[in-house]
Amino acid sequence: MRRSTILRTTGIILLTLGAVAAVGALVVRDQIDRHQRDLFSPQPLKRFAALSYLAGLAASVELVRVLRDFIAWEPRTVLRGRARQIMDRMERQLLEHGTVSVPHPGIAG
Questions:
Q1: Domain count, the chain
Q2: Left (φ > 0), alpha (ψ -120 to 50) or beta: where does 98 sit?
Q3: Is residue 42 a part of any domain in this protein?
Q4: I need a surface site. Which of 17, 66, 72, 107 has the fewest CB within 10 A?
């Protein structure tokens, strides 16, 4: 095989991998957005499913904020408790990794 053919093939493969990764990232982002919307659904089962999905995600400041809003809004004690567990775990992970200091509501920072 000639060198130019190898380079062209390698370039096409890398471009394809980049495109697949970009599409994958968009799909993941869409799923996260959808589940965050379902978090405030009028249906408790959808809220529970959204919490279960969010529990499997990596900790982020954005998710901690969404969970705080949810805890303040959620009328069901069981769902509020589950959200609090998820939020506490995410806050610990963010603090352990030194990603950010996560101030608690009501505490001046």
A1: 1
A2: left
A3: yes
A4: 107
What is the C-alpha to C-alpha distance for residues 4 and 32, in angstroms, rounded to an integer? 42
Which residues form the domain of 15? 3-96
32 inside domain: yes
Per-residue pLDDT of the chain (109 residues; tens, 9 = 90+): 688 888 889 889 989 988 888 887 777 677 666 666 789 999 998 899 899 989 999 999 999 999 999 999 999 999 999 999 999 999 999 999 886 655 555 544 3
Question: Does residue 104 form part of some domain?
Answer: no
Closest alpha carbon to 69 in 58, 54, 57: 54
Closest by CA to 76, choosing from 46, 35, 37, 107, is 46
Other Cβ atoms less than 10 A from the Cβ of 32: the count is 17
